[in-house]
Design a protein that fits this description.
Layout lengths: L1 H27 L5 H5 L6 H11 L5 H14 L1 E3 L3 H6 L5 E3 L6 E2 L4 E2 H36 L4 H15 L2 H15 L11 H4 L1 H35 L2 H8 L4 H29 L3 H6 L5 H10 L3 H29 L7
Antiparallel strand pairs: 1-2, 3-4
Helix pairs in contact: 1-4, 1-15, 6-7, 6-10, 6-12, 6-15, 7-10, 8-10, 10-12, 11-12, 12-15, 14-15
Length: about 350
C-alpha cells in the first residue's frame, strides 16, 4: 500500500509540473502581449512596458516558468527587474511561498487574493458535498431497492426535474422567494466560523450549498440507483442471498461496496471542480469565493490572477485524482496491483 501511494504521489507531482508548463505556454507563447492584460483595461504604453519588466514578461517563456516554479516553492520578489527594484525599493513586494504571481490591477499578490477567497469556496463546497452525497446516495439506494414502485418513479422523476434546471435559476429562486419574500431564512452573507461560530456559518451557507446540492444530487440519485441495481444482479450477491443472509446485510456489505467505487471518482472530480469556485452560485449570492474572484479577474483583464486560479484548479483536480486512487486501493485491494 505504501509503495502504491508513493507511486501515485510521484506521478501527481510530474503532472503538476507539466500542467503548469502547458498553462504558461498557452498564455505566454501566443502572439498576444501578456503585459497588455496584466496591467488592466486602461493601460498606457508606458505602463504596459513597466508592467512587462516588473512581472518578468520580457524574459523567455521557459525562464518565466522556471522563476514561477521557484516562487511557488521558495517565494520571490516583485518587481522582477533588479534595476526597477533598485531605483524604487519602496515598490518592492515580497511574495512568500507559495507565490502565484502579483496582481497589478489589485496591487496585491495572487496568493493573498486566493487566501481571502479560499475559505469561502471551501466552506461552500464542503457543505454542498455533504448535502448532495447524503441525499444522492440515500435516495438512490431507496429507488434501487423499490425498483418499479411509485416511490422509485417519484424519486427519479424529481431528480430529472432538478437536473433540468440551471444553477442560476435555482439560486435566484431560493434567494428571491425563500430568503427575501417568504423570509424562511436570512439573506446569505458569508460569516467565518472564527467570527460567528458554527451556527451562523452553516445558516448563511445553507441556501448557496442547497443550490449546488440539488443539481449534483439529481445526478447522484440516478447514478447510485444504476450502480446498486447493477451490483445487485451480480453472482456473488445472489450467492449471498442463497446463503440466507439478510437483505440489509447483502445491500450494505456486498452491493454498496461495489457501487461505491465509481461514485468515489465522481465525488473527487466534482469536489475538485467546486474548489475552483462555484462561479454562478457565488455570483448570485455575492459570495467572494474563488469563482467570483475568477469572474472579477476576467472582467478586469487581470492575467496573473487568472493564471493563478487556473493552476490552483488544475492542482485540485490532480490531488483529487490521487486521493481517489488511494481510496480505490482501500475499497478494492486488487487496484494496488496495477
Amino acid at each position: 500500500m505504501f509503495a502504491y501511494v508513493v507511486r501515485r504521489l510521484f506521478i501527481g507531482v510530474i503532472l503538476l509540473m507539466v500542467m503548469s508548463l502547458v498553462t504558461f505556454m498557452l498564455f505566454f507563447a501566443s502572439p498576444v502581449d501578456p503585459a497588455r492584460y496584466a496591467c488592466g483595461k486602461n493601460c498606457s504604453p508606458a505602463l504596459k512596458e513597466q508592467t512587462r519588466k516588473a512581472l518578468g514578461y520580457d524574459q523567455p517563456v521557459v525562464t518565466q516558468w522556471t522563476n514561477f516554479m521557484k516562487g511557488v516553492a521558495a517565494g520571490r520578489q516583485y518587481p522582477d527587474d533588479p534595476e526597477i527594484a533598485k531605483k524604487a525599493p519602496e515598490l518592492v513586494v515580497d511574495c512568500t511561498a507559495p507565490c502565484f504571481g502579483y496582481s497589478v490591477v489589485n496591487q496585491q499578490t495572487v496568493a493573498e487574493e486566493m487566501k481571502e477567497a479560499f475559505p469561502v469556496s471551501l466552506s461552500l463546497a464542503l457543505v454542498a458535498l455533504v448535502l448532495w452525497l447524503t441525499g444522492g446516495v440515500v435516495f438512490g439506494v431507496i429507488a434501487a431497492v423499490r425498483k418499479g414502485s411509485f416511490m422509485d418513479r417519484g424519486i427519479v422523476g424529481a431528480s430529472l426535474v432538478f437536473y433540468a434546471f440551471p444553477t442560476f435559476f435555482i439560486g435566484l429562486f431560493l434567494l428571491k422567494f425563500v430568503a427575501i419574500q417568504w423570509q424562511w431564512v436570512q439573506v446569505p452573507s458569508y460569516t467565518p466560523i472564527a467570527e460567528g461560530g458554527v451556527g451562523p456559518w452553516l445558516s448563511n451557507l445553507f441556501l448557496p450549498a442547497l443550490t449546488l446540492a440539488l443539481v449534483y444530487m439529481a445526478g447522484y440519485v440516478r447514478m447510485t440507483r444504476a450502480f446498486v441495481l447493477e451490483s445487485m444482479s451480480e453472482d456473488y450477491v445472489r450467492t449471498a442471498r442463497a446463503k440466507g443472509l439478510k437483505s440489509r446485510r447483502v445491500l450494505v456489505k456486498h452491493s454498496m461496496r461495489a457501487a461505491l467505487t465509481p461514485l468515489v471518482t465522481l465525488v473527487g472530480l466534482d469536489f475538485a471542480g467546486l474548489m475552483g469556485g462555484a462561479i454562478i452560485t457565488e455570483t448570485v449570492f455575492n459570495f467572494n469565493g474563488l469563482g467570483k474572484l475568477a469572474v472579477d479577474a476576467n472582467a478586469a483583464y487581470d492575467l496573473p490572477t487568472i493564471i493563478g486560479l487556473v493552476l490552483l484548479l488544475g492542482a485540485f483536480v490532480i490531488v483529487a485524482n490521487i486521493i481517489v486512487d488511494v481510496l480505490y486501493a482501500v475499497i478494492d485491494p486488487r487496484v494496488r496491483v496495477g
